[in-house]
Write a structure and sequence with these properties.
There is one protein chain. The radius of gyration is 47 Å and the shape is elongated. By secondary structure, the protein is α+β, with helices and mostly antiparallel strands. The chain has 13 helices and six strands. A four-stranded antiparallel beta sheet has the order 1-2-4-5, with no helix packed on it. Strands 3-6 form a two-stranded antiparallel sheet. It is 61% helix and 9% strand. α8 runs antiparallel to α11.
Length: 534
């Protein structure tokens, strides 16, 4: 019969093979056909153990614990894969977040394209007022600070509406050795509606920050216009003083002639010299004050202390047109950035009130742990829930949010009242300046010139004293200076009405296109137009 070699229980490397398949044995060994005694034949037969040792199939030996470590390694790699997958997650933007980022992209393309300052206009003495304002709006540090405050507020929307970060947990059971090793993952899930309310509150705050950026643009434009028109007032004042100085020199020559002819005393000549010296000193002081006004314009343009001073405009632009109070008020209620920011504060307070009302709803946490040492793998799920039992705390949060909303609404109403009052006061300033300018231009200045001419003629003829001439000359000077001041006051009033009250931005301002200069019904409002004169 055909025998077989059984596995040697003392040799773990051997594999059981049929005895008749061993190539080491040349022929099959049959005890019945043996010519010798079966006992001798068995003695001469090959040792089965030797045959197995010669023909065995070896299996590599594994170190103790290798299979367990391999299982741990696979589980660890699976855990890291889960962690990496979670780290690549992104949330779903809300509608308000997408709108805020769209607005930011629209403004950044004009204000900071490629996150860099665009090319600034090259200012010269012939540059119009619009180029000075464009330079200031793109270069002023206060505008830039307000812009990046808005950027930061927009970026805070995403953390506000996002889920809390998952938490990696770890547990182990240890006696003399580590019995269990359980890493895990825990996720917190706020109650439905909490994240949405938090995101809406932050979105409203970002919109309020945008209106802060728009407010800085309007105030920077007003600062440029103020410095611009004050320089204009200074140059006009210096011009009038030079004309007065020329008149006094003519009067001094006339007094000398009259004194030489024996018609007047030396006192008239001295009076003319005293007046001339006073005007010369006043001109010197005015020219010295030009440095301060240029520094004011330099500051409004956002130039640093080491930057060169801007050129003084050789031509000045004045505005034409009559502001319409009703349209200005309507435009202010729609466009004024302070009002719009306060409206966003009310919306933010409403969102926070909704969030406070959710404070009585429990939050949940879910987790899963895996025992790396158990075989088979042991999974341990877990769940937790907050229990909002402190009713007084919940009631206080809701009451505080309601009070904040009412305070925001009251501030909005107060700002509307203030803007209406400021509009009325500024319109009065404008109308007064227009009346004074018209009176001086059409009546007082021409008559003062006639009075001066009559006094000079009378002085030559001996029918008027030198004091009459000096008095007529001073009256003309006062009227001319008052006329310059009235024109300047008119321009500043128009600038304040347009920029800080109505909220109509200057042309080319890097702000959102929201129908600037339009009333609530969409009709165009009347804004003063500018005209240029030397």
């Amino acid at each position: 019969m055909v025998g077989s070699i059984r596995r040697d229980e003392f040799c773990p490397y051997a594999v059981d093979l049929p005895f008749d398949s061993l190539r080491a044995v040349p022929d099959r060994f049959d005890l019945q056909r043996a010519a010798v005694h079966p006992r001798d034949a068995l003695a001469q037969a090959p040792n089965p153990r030797e045959v197995r040792m010669h023909n065995r199939v070896r299996v590599p030996r594994q170190a103790p614990g290798t299979a367990l470590r391999r299982s741990w390694s696979l589980r660890a790699h699976a855990g890291w894969a889960v962690v990496l997958a979670l780290s690549a997650c992104t949330g779903t933007p809300s509608t308000s977040e997408r709108a805020a980022r769209s607005d930011l992209s629209q403004v950044s393309q004009r204000y900071r394209p490629g996150d860099a300052q665009p090319a600034l206009p090259a200012l010269t003495s012939a540059s119009p007022l619009s180029e000075y304002m464009q330079f200031a709006l793109l270069n002023a540090p206060r505008v830039e600070a307000a812009y990046f405050d808005w950027v930061a507020a927009v970026e805070r929307i995403t953390p506000a509406r996002s889920l809390p970060d998952p938490r990696l947990t770890f547990e182990a059971d240890i006696t003399n050795t580590i019995q269990s090793l359980m890493p895990g993952l825990m996720i917190d899930l706020p109650a439905a509606g909490k994240l949405r309310a938090a995101g809406e509150a932050q979105a409203a705050e970002s919109r309020a920050a945008y209106y802060g950026f728009e407010r800085e643009i309007l105030w920077t434009a007003l600062a440029v216009k103020t410095a611009y028109y004050r320089l204009h007032f200074l140059e006009e004042t210096i011009r009038v003083q030079h004309e007065t100085l020329r008149l006094l020199r003519d009067l001094e020559d006339l007094a000398r002639q009259q004194h030489a002819a024996g018609r007047v005393t030396l006192q008239d000549v001295l009076r003319a010299q005293i007046g001339r010296a006073q005007v010369e000193t006043r001109i010197e002081s005015l020219e010295d004050s030009r440095t301060a006004l240029v520094a004011e314009l330099k500051s409004a343009l956002g130039l640093g202390p080491l930057d060169a001073a801007p050129p003084i405009p050789s031509t000045f632009s004045s505005s034409e047109g009559e502001p319409r109070p009703d349209e200005l008020l309507t435009t202010a209620l729609v466009r004024n950035p302070d009002l719009r920011a306060m409206e966003e504060d009310v919306l933010r307070a409403e969102a926070l009130l909704g969030l406070a009302r959710k404070s009585g709803v429990p939050d949940f946490s879910f987790g899963l742990e895996v025992d790396l040492k158990s075989d088979p793998t042991l999974l341990r799920p877990s769940a937790a829930m907050t229990v909002p039992i402190w009713r007084d705390k919940i009631a206080a949060e809701i009451a505080g949010a309601q009070a904040s909303k009412r305070a925001a609404q009251a501030r909005l109403t107060a700002e509307q009242v203030r803007i209406a009052a400021d509009l009325t006061a500024m319109l009065f300033v404008y109308r007064e300046a227009v009346r004074n300018e018209a009176l001086l231009r059409d009546a007082l200045v021409p008559k003062a010139r006639q009075s001066l001419d009559a006094a000079r003629a009378g002085y030559v003829n001996g029918r008027a004293s030198f004091l009459d001439v000096i008095d007529a000359q001073r009256t003309l000077l006062d009227f001319e200076l008052t006329g310059v001041e009235a024109r300047t006051q008119r321009e500043l009033a128009l600038a304040s009405l347009s920029l800080t009250i109505a909220g109509v931005p200057p042309s080319g301002a890097p702000i959102l296109e929201r129908g600037a200069g339009r009333s609530a019904d969409g009709s165009a409002t009347s804004t003063p137009q500018e005209k240029t004169h030397p």
